[in-house]
């Protein structure tokens, strides 16, 4: 399998890429600083065998994103896990730029290639639970204050989901509202190169609960030979508290093995 990883220098994208590399996939990373992996012995062993390809570029640049597609060749799946470094201030948690995730997704979609002898690539995009009023209402009571601090990053994630829904032809819940114009830009539906409504296929939006570090419960269960998942997932609101980044990466990697079950869905994941 040939994977393009956007936003995978760390956290969920990185962990997912390592899982897929260990399963024999080839992964092309778009990285602002490929040197970030210089001392990473795990990545370097795959660089040595040319299973990991490190492309210097920035996903906020449409041209750099186009080069990443070209360098990757015929892509089977994209893992899109872009996320800014959070800062805590009087307005809660913010990222800079405030529309980073949405704009990087625009660049990915506006440069997606058309393959003559292969299907459109699968796209797995990392979002979050609690984005909309109804989703926030379904959060556990103790988690609601924490999610209230995520207003700015969640506006960006809402933009991400809105753009994907438009291109995939999904019905958009009016109660969720439209993203602010400073997230998507004015008249974003007419952006050159953006896939026409309904023309984008093979999408999976993953909405993790509050992210933590630590081991994968799913991996530990599998090592014990038990037939359990370690986490819950589904299209419905799950009322979850947290999930480790390692378990989100487990879900992403295994989702490609059960794609028919998950394609064109928005899936919540958590404990």
TrEMBL record:
- One matching Pfam family is NAD_binding_10
Question: Coiled coil: which residue ranges?
Answer: none
Q: Which residues form the NAD(P)-binding domain?
A: 7-161
**Protein name stated in the entry:** NAD(P)-bd-dom domain-containing protein
- Species name: Mycena indigotica
């Amino acid at each position: 399998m040939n994977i393009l990883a956007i936003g995978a220098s760390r956290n969920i994208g990185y962990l997912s890429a390592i899982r897929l590399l260990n399963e024999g996939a080839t992964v092309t990373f778009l990285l602002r600083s490929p040197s970030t992996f210089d001392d990473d012995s795990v990545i370097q062993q795959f660089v040595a065998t040319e299973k990991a390809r490190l492309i210097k570029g920035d996903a906020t640049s449409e041209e750099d994103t186009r080069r990443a597609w070209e360098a990757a060749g015929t892509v089977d799946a994209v893992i899109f896990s872009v996320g800014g470094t959070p800062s805590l201030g009087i307005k809660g948690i913010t990222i800079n730029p405030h529309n980073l995730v949405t704009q990087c997704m625009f660049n990915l979609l506006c440069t997606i290639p058309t393959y003559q002898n292969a299907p459109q690539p699968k796209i797995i995009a990392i979002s979050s639970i609690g984005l909309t009023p109804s989703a926030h209402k379904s959060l556990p009571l103790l988690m609601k204050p924490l999610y209230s601090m995520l207003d700015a990053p969640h506006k960006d994630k809402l933009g991400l989901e809105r753009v994907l829904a438009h291109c995939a032809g999904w019905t958009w819940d009016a109660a969720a509202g439209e993203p602010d114009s400073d997230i998507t830009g004015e008249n974003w539906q007419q952006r050159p190169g953006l896939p026409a409504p309904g023309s984008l296929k093979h999408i999976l939006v993953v909405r993790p609960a509050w992210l933590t570090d630590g081991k994968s419960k799913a991996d530990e269960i599998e090592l014990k030979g038990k037939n359990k998942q370690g986490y819950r997932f589904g299209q419905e609101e799950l009322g979850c508290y947290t999930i480790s980044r390692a378990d989100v990466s487990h879900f992403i990697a295994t989702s490609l093995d059960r794609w028919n079950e998950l394609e064109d869905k928005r899936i919540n994941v958590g404990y």
